[in-house]
Amino acid sequence: MQNPPPSHASAIPFKASSIMLTLNLAKVGVMSLPDRPGVAGTLLGAIGRRGVNAHFVVELTDHTNRSHIVLGVGETDIDLTLAAIGDIASDIPAAAVVHQREVVLVSIHGPHFRDRPGCAAEAFTAIAAAGVNILAISTSVSSISCLVERPNLNLVIESLQHHFDVTDDGVLVAEDGLARPWRHGR
Asked: Which CATH number fits domain 18-22+103-181: 3.30.450.20, 3.20.20.70, 3.30.565.10, 3.30.2130.10?
């Protein structure tokens, strides 16, 4: 008698409900901060007081107990963001503040992602298969989000559509608080 396949059988293809894009972003990295309570709140509060919204936030602590925070902010807000970081430099001294323009947030949504081991690996493999480097990653129970360079966007979309069986109608752009259809190559 054969054992039944595991519940997460890899033979079952992954399916996403949509790919959501947030365009016209810049990546800001606040690197090697003290790892202590309130650092992220201080940083995000400072940029918020300048009217800047963080569309993407990821934080990690390295092996030396230093914290690194990467933000995705509107490309037109980069100067305000850098000024806000300068305002709090004495409160949370960073070893470096780095930034990069022309990045895009790509988020893959699938309600079954939390129940299917390997979804994130499939997404990262799809992006790598397109020859694209991921700048930053964040996940939730139902989504996988990555910052990528804007010139690579069409390659990323095509590969993710193929790997996750998403039609053109399932590729959306977040604009003005709404999800609008993506028009390839715009």
From this structure: 3.30.2130.10
Instruction: State how far the Cα of 176 lies from the Cα of 80, in Å rounded to an integer.
Output: 20
Q: How far apart are CA 81 and CA 50, in angstroms?
A: 8
What's the whole-model pTM score? 0.89
Cβ–Cβ < 8 Å for 100, 112: no
- The contacts of residue 167 (CB under 8 Å, 6+ apart) are 161
What are the structural domain ranges in the chain? 18-22+103-181, 25-101
Residue-wise pLDDT for 92-115, tens only, equals 999 999 999 999 999 999 877 888
Q: Could you tell me the pLDDT band of residue 42, with boundaries at 50, 70 and 90?
A: very high
Token pair in block for residue 76: 């037109």
In angstroms, rounded to a whole number, what is the distance separating the alpha carbons of residues 41 and 70?
A: 13
